[in-house]
Automatic annotation (TrEMBL):
Top enzyme category: transferase
Family: Belongs to the cytidylyltransferase family.
CDD domains associated with the record: CCT, ECT
PANTHER family per record: ETHANOLAMINE-PHOSPHATE CYTIDYLYLTRANSFERASE
Occurrences of domain Cytidyltransferase-like (ranges): 69-198, 255-349
Keywords of the record: Lipid biosynthesis, Lipid metabolism, Membrane, Nucleotidyltransferase, Phospholipid biosynthesis, Phospholipid metabolism, Transferase, Transmembrane, Transmembrane helix
Biological source species: Eucalyptus globulus
Entries under InterPro entries matching the protein: CCT, Cyt_trans-like, Ect1/PCYT2, Rossmann-like_a/b/a_fold
Chemical reaction(s) catalysed: phosphoethanolamine + CTP + H(+) = CDP-ethanolamine + diphosphate
Pathway(s) per entry: Lipid metabolism; Phospholipid metabolism; phosphatidylethanolamine biosynthesis; phosphatidylethanolamine from ethanolamine: step 2/3
Stated name of the protein: Ethanolamine-phosphate cytidylyltransferase
One BP annotation, GO: phospholipid biosynthetic process
GO MF, any single term: ethanolamine-phosphate cytidylyltransferase activity
Enzyme Commission identifier(s): 2.7.7.14
Length: 418
């Protein structure tokens, strides 16, 4: 037993202090003490010693965490942004995200819809993001790249397979590629901020067309197909966004429902507050039909599966019900073991919709309903109004971006991964 204890002590020393203990054992081996002084303890021979020390050194070096960096404007945050950051995180251990400044967006793309504060809230609320750098430059300059490598300890800079060009036509990531510290991910198809702005502008045109028709004027009709989502949902994508785990046996489950259309900073804030009230946050996403019925025929802007992924990407959300009912029933509360039902004070509705049954009548009667005060008054409609109010600038921005989109799809090649 004494020999076994000493043997364990030797191997513990070799593991935790490889250089010091390796030198001691090497000295012992050179003096011929491995079989004499240590007797039958089983001290390794010199070749074996070098081999084993090397193994432990590799293990120690392998513990270094890989830090990756990805930047973007993240204007009108959507599931495409979230999926890009998910892929970036998969290439390392820690993901640092740079949020491009308002001034840089104006200079390179046109006016942003969301403020820097709103965009920071959205990016920080994503489950894959570890750190955020505000006011990042649009182009990776040599000075900024050195700052990433030296100050932020970044190992690789990540971007999608779609080209990111500066106004002069040069590659914004040329320096990172030249330095050999660049990695590429697959772009998420079917959505972009340009596409979302386009949907809102089409709604504006459609509204104007209806007003003109009511006044007896004739205008060219707008195809409903123009607003059809190009997103092709797959079960694998939902699994990739999911936490893939349910609540514990004694978990306090909090439920909140809504449209969560054009996922924004107000949504992040209310979801965070809801999550703080329990151990597991379950979010109900209303169907497109229900949203349209209660908010008007031009809603939702984002379709059910698009909205579901945006909500699933939020770090405060544990699970979603895709297509939740309008009313929270007793059976639903029992089925999901809901402890508390919450709703924010900022909510949108169609003023022309008929006043129906209170969807929270049951949880209220059970004493498990709580209204959460919303400190952020941003809504889906207020975001859309920003675009409508400045629609000429956004039409020009979209026309410019649309040309780049067409070129990308014309030259598009298959990219593995994602």
């Amino acid at each position: 037993m004494e020999h076994e204890s000493l043997n364990n002590w030797i191997w513990d020393g070799l593991y935790y202090h490889p250089h010091l203990f390796g030198g001691l054992m090497l000295t012992a081996a050179l003096l011929g003490l491995s079989t004499g002084y240590f007797g039958g303890i089983g001290v390794p021979s010199l070749p074996q010693l070098w081999s084993d020390v090397g193994i432990f050194q590799k293990k120690k070096r392998g513990k270094k965490r890989v830090r990756v960096y990805m930047d973007g404007c993240f204007d009108l945050m959507h599931y495409g942004h979230a999926n890009a950051l998910r892929q970036a995180k998969a290439l390392g251990d820690e993901l640092v995200v740079g949020v491009v400044s308002d001034e840089e967006i104006v200079a390179n793309k046109g006016p942003p819809v969301l403020t820097m504060e709103e965009r920071l809230a959205l990016v920080s609320g994503l489950k894959w993001v570890d750190e955020v750098i505000p006011n990042a430059p649009y182009a990776i300059t040599e000075q900024f790249m050195k700052s990433l490598f030296n100050e932020h300890k970044i190992d690789y800079i990540i971007h999608g397979d779609d080209p990111c060009l500066l106004p002069d036509g040069t590659d914004a990531y040329a320096l990172a590629k030249k330095a050999g510290r660049y990695k590429q991910i697959k772009r998420t198809e079917g959505v972009s901020s340009t596409d979302i702005v386009g949907r809102i502008l089409l709604l504006l045109k459609d509204t104007k067309r209806n007003d003109s028709l009511l006044n007896g004027e004739h205008q060219e009709s707008i195809s409903e197909d123009a607003r059809v989502s190009q997103f092709l949902p797959t079960s694998r994508r939902i699994v990739q966004f999911s936490n893939a785990k349910g609540p514990g046996p004694n978990a306090r489950i909090v439920y909140i429902d809504g449209a969560f259309d054009l996922f924004h900073a107000g949504h992040v804030e209310i979801l965070k507050r809801a999550r703080q009230l329990g151990d597991f946050l379950l979010v109900g996403l209303h169907t497109d039909y229900i949203v349209s019925e209660h908010r008007g025929k031009h809603h939702p802007i984002m379709h059910l599966h698009e909205r579901s992924l945006s909500v699933l990407a939020c770090r405060y959300v544990d699970e979603v019900i895709i297509g939740a009912p309008w009313e929270v029933s007793k059976d639903m509360i029992t089925t999901f073991n809901i402890s508390l039902v919450v709703h924010g004070t900022i909510a949108e509705s169609n003023p022309l919709a008929l006043v129906g049954i209170d969807p929270y009548a049951v949880p209220k009667s059970m004493g498990i309903f709580r209204l959460l005060e919303s400190s952020n008054n941003i809504t889906t409609s207020s975001i859309a109004q920003r675009i409508v109010a400045n629609h000429e600038a956004y039409m020009k921005r979209n026309a410019k971006k649309a040309e780049g989109e067409r070129k990308y799809y014309a030259e598009k090649k298959y990219v593995a991964g994602d």
